Every structure is written in structure tokens, then in C-alpha cells.
Amino acid sequence: MTIRKVAAGEDIPYDLLLLADPSRELINTYINVGEVYVMELENNIIAAYVLVRNDTTVEIKNIAVRVDYQGQGIGKLLLNDAVQRATAMGCKSICIGTGNSSIAQLYLYQRQGFEITGIRKDFFTTNYKDPIYENDILCKHMIMLERKLGEI
Ligand code: ACO
């Protein structure tokens, strides 16, 4: 298994990125300013994440594992890889945002040392055309989490 940056001109793994973010339009806005990383297994892309740097912090804008590989520890590996890259970039912190209804994601990120720092109120109901439901909860707000680098 290797994790590498997608090269300029290479295909973007939209099928994966759309698992984490149903808006192709929003995906395009952040991949234009960020870097896409992919995990490959025997020449197949099975997971991806996107980093966008803003001064001394970097945000994981999208993180996704192919459905048939979920629940096997790959999400944790991707988060650790992002932390290592952000540290190597000289960033002081790394952040990630997820929906108020994304219970498993909130569990995973906090288990990996991210702490809740704020809420972008009504982010999903404002920016997405169709309502998003997870765990029978309407996804309205984005919960922001941050991990200070060099701490864990
Ligand atoms: N329900 C309950 N617990 C879960 C679930 C789930 N659906 N998924 C993962 N977990 C738990 C695991 O049990 C594990 O817990 P443990 O550390 O106690 O053993 C922990 O979370 C880590 O699990 P991984 O196997 O590393 O996670 P996975 O490889 O499935 O990746 C991810 C997690 C990226 C969320 C993946 O499930 C996925 O692609 N989901 C669809 C897309 C998505 O929701 N992306 C995140 C949106 S937010 C954003 O992109 C910024």
C-alpha cells in the first residue's frame, strides 16, 4: 500500500471524493487550490484525501475510503499520513470539518487526537441543494476539529 500525491494532469478520483462530499462543484473549488493524495493497492486507488493549506494550518477537505475497504483501519492510516505531511510542511495545526450527523466520523477524528474547535452554522443547508440525512439526523452544521501538530 502506498500513499502518493496525484500528479498534475492525472485523473481526479471523483468516485471516491463524492463519497465524502456529494457536491462535485464544491470538490472542484478545493481541489483547484489543494493537493489530492491517493492510496494505491496493487495499482488500484482505494482511498483518497485532499489537503488545503492556509498559512500555518492545513485542512483535510475530503477523506474517503472505497466502500469495500472501509472499517479496516485505512481511514486511520490516511489521517496519520495527513498529519505527517502537514508536520513536514511546517504547519502548526491540522483541521477537519464534518457534519453534525456524521457520528462515525466524529468518533474517528476525536480518537485520532482532533478536538472540536467550532461550528460553521448551517453550512450544509446553505451550500448543498438537497438535504443530507445520516443516522436519521439532518446534516445542517459543520463541526470543525483541530489537532495541534507535534503534540501526540
Ligand atoms: N460506524 C462506526 N464506527 C466506524 C465506522 C462506522 N461507519 N467507520 C469507521 N468506524 C470506526 C472504526 O470502528 C474504527 O474504530 P476503532 O479505532 O475503535 O477501531 C475507527 O472508526 C477507524 O476506522 P477506519 O477503519 O480507519 O475507518 P475507514 O477506513 O472506514 O475510514 C472514513 C473512515 C474515511 C470515514 C470512511 O468510512 C469513508 O470513506 N466514509 C465515507 C466518506 C466519508 O464520510 N468521509 C468523511 C467525510 S468528512 C470529510 O471528508 C472532511
From the alpha-carbon coordinates, what is the Rg to the nearest angstrom?
A: 15 Å
Q: Are there runs of 5+ residues with pLDDT below 50, and where?
A: none
CATH topology: Aminopeptidase
Shape type: globular
Quick one: how many beta strands?
Answer: 9
Task: Spell out the blueprint of helices and strands.
Blueprint: E1 2-5, H1 14-20, H2 24-31, E2 35-41, E3 44-54, E4 57-65, H3 74-88, E5 93-99, H4 103-111, E6 115-120, H5 123-127, E7 133-134, E8 137-138, E9 142-148
Parallel strand pairs: 4-5
Antiparallel strand pairs: 1-2, 2-3, 3-4, 5-9, 6-9, 7-8
Bound molecules: acetyl coenzyme *A.
Acetyl coenzyme *A (ACO) binds next to helix 1, strand 4, helix 3, strand 5 and helix 4.
